[in-house]
Structure formats: C-alpha cells, structure tokens
Amino acid sequence: MQIFLGIIQKARGEGLDFANAMLAGYTAVLCSPKFFCLEEKPGKLDQRALAARLAYFLWNSAPDEALLKADLSDPKVLRQQTDRLLNHPKSRQFVDAFLNYWLDLRKMGLPRQMRNSIPTTTWTTCSLSPPCRRRSFSLRRC
Predict the structure, then answer these.
(1) What confidence score (pLDDT) does residue 138 get?
(2) Is the whole model's pTM more than 0.70, yes or no?
C-alpha cells in the first residue's frame, strides 16, 4: 500500500491536483501484477487453486462456497461442479462479454461514427448483422 501512497504523494508534489494524483495512484494499483494476476505456487494444484482456476475460467470471477467445499480431486465431482458452473448465469455473462468485447459483436450493425473510427468490415455493416449477432449468441451454449 505504501508504494501506491508514494505515487500519489509524488504526483501531488509535482503539482497535480488531488483528483489527478489519485488517478495516478489508481492507475498504479490497476496495473500492478498482484492486482490483475492470479498468483499461485507452482506444482500440483490444491483444491483451492483448482477451484479458483475453474471459476475464473468459466465465470471470470472467484469461486463460490460450493466449489470451494467440493472434492475436486474426484473426477465425478469435478465433472458435476463443471456442469454446475456452466449452467450458472455467471457463465452466460462471461460468454456474452467474450463475444461482445473479444469478438467485437457489440459493434455489429452500429453506424460508422459510433464505432470510433474502427475499420469497417462487411459483417459489422451488413443489413443482416442483427440476425448474425443473434445467431452468434445462440451458438454460445453448443
């Protein structure tokens, strides 16, 4: 925490106002590997590490209590928990976010000026884009 406080104090000392100094501190926190990387010890995964990887992969969020308490070393339990996570609304939200942001489906059919000068491709401007987008989302559960 002291390192981030130091960044804020240095920014203030360099003449930045409070809001911009805080912004510098927030930026440092958000760019810190310990903030956005999941740190685990190398080697065979323990139950908690396996639960965390499964949850972050399928939900893009932390594991719930049921997953943390499950005996994931049992292949049958692991399969049941995987199915439970895939059928949970968090899984759908994660897939929707992936389709929208990684594949840029959120831009499909938008007028050119709303796409912030992103290069236009046929699939983003064609008159079939709303049905194409719906079809892409309908395939997410296959």
Answers:
(1) 56
(2) no
